Amino acid sequence: MAENRVTESGLMISRVFDAPRELVFKAWTEPERLAQWWGPKGYELKIAKLDLRPGGMFLGSQRSPEGHVMWGKFVYQEIVAPEKLVFIQSFSDEEGNTIRAPFSGTWPLEVINHLTLTEDLGKTTLTLKGGPYNAADEERVTFEGMRPHVQQGFVGTFDQLDAFLAKT
After folding, report:
1. Which H/E stretch holds residue 75?
2. Cis before 132 (ω within 30)
3. What is the pLDDT of residues 100-134, one digit of tens each?
């Protein structure tokens, strides 16, 4: 039976950016900024919707260099500008309906992410904690097995955020 919880073995990533917290928050919450850095390197993000409010949704598609398109969404749970975002992330179709990940039939349908931003002397520390949400045991096991790859993916995405912030 699925429980409404995050697995204790979720992931946590922390990174310091040489940018003020307000700017880092805007990079996560303004479509024209988010489209310039989110996702794997070489992928193009097209944002169909970004409704920044609790219960609101980000919906977008990523196109790989080979032309493969995947849709995904965030459903915002909590927003405290400019210090906190909590959102449930899922793969989706273009209408925003949650679907299974294209790479695994047992990847969690929902992953919750808690993003916090703290600023010290003009630099922002971003901390991301996340893991399966409303997940079956099999989904939690799949997530745990893929955790090193998920962390590596976030490192690459945060490299792109760092480069974006350096240009801004």
Report:
1. strand 69-80
2. no
3. 999 999 999 999 999 999 999 999 999 999 999 99
Between the alpha carbon of residue 8 and those of residues 23, 74, 75, 111, 140, the distances in Å are: 31, 21, 22, 13, 10
Residue 44 — φ and ψ, nearest 5°?
Answer: -105, 130
- Tell me the pTM: 0.92
Q: Which of the listed CATH numbers 3.30.530.20, 3.90.1170.50, 2.30.110.20, 3.30.230.10 matches domain 12-167?
A: 3.30.530.20
Give tens-digit pLDDT for 124-160.
Answer: 999 999 999 999 999 999 999 999 999 999 999 999 9
Token digits of residue 13: 């990533």
Rounded CA separation 157/39 (Å): 6
